[in-house]
Amino acid sequence: MNKLRKDFLWGGATAANQFEGAYNIDGKGLTINDVELGASHGQTRQILDPIINSKYYPSHEAVDFYHHYKEDIKLMAEMGFKSFRMSISWARIFPNGDDAIPNEAGLEFYDKVFDELRKYKIEPVVTLHHFELPLNLVKKYGAWRSRKLVDLAVRYAKLVMNRYKNKVKYWMTFNEINSLFISDQPWHMAGIIYKKGENKADTMLQAAHHQLLASALTVIEGKKINPNFKIGCMLLYPCTYAATCRPEDQICARNKLLSTYYFGDVQVRGRYTNTCTSYINQIQGTFKTEPGDDAILAAGVVDFIGFSYYFSAIEGIEKIDQAEGNLSTGGRNPYLKLTDWGWQTDPIGLRNSLNALYDRYQKPLFIVENGLGAKDKINSDGTINDDYRISYLRDHIKAMIDAVDIDNVDLIGYETWGPIDLISAGTGEMRKRYGFIYVDRNDNGQGSFKRIPKASFYWYKQVIASNGNRL
């Protein structure tokens, strides 16, 4: 028997912009995702605004959870889910982000979702900001460049936390907040397209400071609403090894993680640390603060650390072939295999990541994204044999359990990414499937939306039922 807690939160994770669809239904406003075109054969997504109806925008329909939520939640319950990570779309609550009055239809939708989850005793884990900034806030204020967004974001958070204070216990403020520094797509993370002549480092640091203030204030206000709330941060964790035992390579590996620990340090320790200063100096940037900011950051520290883990990479002073990863790249490790999309598979890296984060912060951890994007095939009898996904998840869960059993890491739960097939964040594709449940949609937005359980559906059901003892 493993040492996972009896109330371990097994489940799966989604994001509204990749899952809900219904982009302009019941009063929802446009988000930054709603003006992103779908990719063709894995190419980078494009921003096209105003919307052209003849073009395909993946988030407009996604996999239509908006109209299938009862069916989808029932399937999750059949697997035995203890939790379900989802996000609230800011623009479904405040269509323009700064409206005087919230959209009641949007609030009612999430009421119905939470009630359905409660019906099956599934704990919602809610992300407030999952790359879903209302488009109007980009056009009116310049997105997260502006401090105005801090007030607006906290106003939105207070409203939904008050509304659902008896239905939601676990909250996370910003999804993969450090991806603003890691990725070269600031539009996707913060609604930012750099202007000609703009100092990118300064803009990036300023936007980050505003998001960190919004996160801290959300924690402060959330605890006033319900002291029993558990409010966490969420990091993209890019597990990184030194390419060789050369001391210089160790420094390269450390530097790769500076941008991740920058956000972890502020949200967990409540201040800009030497790690933060080191990163600021490295990119030669500056940002403005106001009196009282330090006190806000100090008071608004998180209760737990959520993080995503998909791959690892290496870094060194010599030139290294690069491999793709989750919104980032890293050095190619010859000891690791690649997925169909070129991501390096490293189950032991999950154990290493859990130890690195727990050793550094001594806060409960929550794996809120982990999974395999692959091309699934429907057999002639209608079944889907995704043994490759089962193998991937089994190996990662084994490593996770080792971190708890052997290393004594405090772990809250494990959410696989995309328990039901959804739109890829990086490319807008459907053929890159993660789910235990197949959704009949293709890269052109065609299909019936029919849901079909895969072989992994039944495997994960036994994993949950045994609390990870039957893999």
UniProtKB/TrEMBL annotation:
Enzyme Commission (EC) number: 3.2.1.86
List of catalytic residues: 369
Gene Ontology MF terms in the entry: 6-phospho-beta-glucosidase activity
UniProt keyword Hydrolase present: yes
Keyword Hydrolase among record annotations: yes
Alphabetical UniProt keywords: Glycosidase, Hydrolase
Leading EC class: hydrolase
Pfam families: Glyco_hydro_1
Gene3D superfamilies: Glycosidases
InterPro entries listed in its UniProt record: GH, GH_1_N_CS, Glyco_hydro_1, Glyco_hydro_1_AS
UniProt family annotation: Belongs to the glycosyl hydrolase 1 family.
The name this protein goes by in its record: 6-phospho-beta-glucosidase
The organism of origin for this protein: Lactobacillus colini
